[in-house]
Amino acid sequence: MPIIESVQVASVAVPLDKVTSFSTRTVSERHYCLVKVRGKDGNEGIGFCYVGSAGGDIAKIAVEQLLAPKLIGQNSHRSEGLWMEMYDESILQGRTGAVMRGISILDTALWDLNARSVGLPLHQYLGSVVDDRVPAYASGGYYLEGKTPAKLGKEMESYVQQGFKAVKMKVGRLSPAEEEARVKAARKAIGDDILLTLDANNAWRDLPTALEYVRRFEAYNPYWIEEPFSPDAIDLHAALARLTKINVATGEMEAGRWRFRELIDAGGARILQSDAAVCGGITEWRRISAYADLKGVTVCPHWMHDLHAPLVAATPNARFVEFFLDDQVLNFRRLINKQLTFKNGDLILHKTPGLGFEFDEAAVKKYAGKAAWTKIT
Fold it and tell me: Which domains does the chain have, with CATH numbers?
């Protein structure tokens, strides 16, 4: 049995090559928190999460001072107990946000460590539904200077030409008429048989404004409208879901099974975008997915495809993995040594133990800006 010998944690900031905009914010760099959990048997598991465009050290401090000390000397296969003990230890500091992301990172590393300790790829260790590949949608359509609707259409078309059966674009930054023009261009470029999904990134604050946009979008048959409101506005998500034929998708920033139960029971998400690196790790993600399955809700997890591909492979009610073809927006791929490949719109699962990749130590050192790893023993 793997007895945990040490935990190492690092905080890194990776600049974007091009400043990129969403509906309500502009991003110039990404902060990530990384961990390595080492067993006395020599096996090591890794975990990671995006922790914002500033303040990445908050998650690192949570791991270092609150969470990692609970793991040292423990049996890594006692994952349910370790999750509960980390949660209980940090309940005063925050049941969501950076602290829960710290729990998520460590919990992911425990699952990776345990899968490696028995020589199985993570999807097989979890008990896979499929064993070779999972469907993905190509994510993009961001706001860049000079990007016209025609150029957006070309971008979406390029994903279809590479075999993807579903694509995603951003909406909500511009006027209703301007956004309709963008959605219209995307639909025209990809044709009627490709799923078109729309991400508003919390663009709207009230139902009438959201409906002004969504009514225009309905003519182009989007599969979902993502994060139309603040994640705290569960009632507005549920109200919009009742008033539009477009599926409402949300949940990428939620944490803990209790909040997801509230969201699902209110009817606020027909598509659940729970993120294992945010919601409480693989342990909590599986609980949330099981509850969603009971309620007939489809799971399509939020980005971090390197983590979510094996989870989707092992989850009956999961449909798509979000996939970025380059590192312009999700530049986490610069920090790891092996990339997932894709074919005909599917991600090909790793066959090596655990997650199937390691951190690129030279890249971690480059972006950490100081001594990369802090060790807890």
Answer: 4-119+357-376 (3.30.390.10), 124-348 (3.20.20.120)
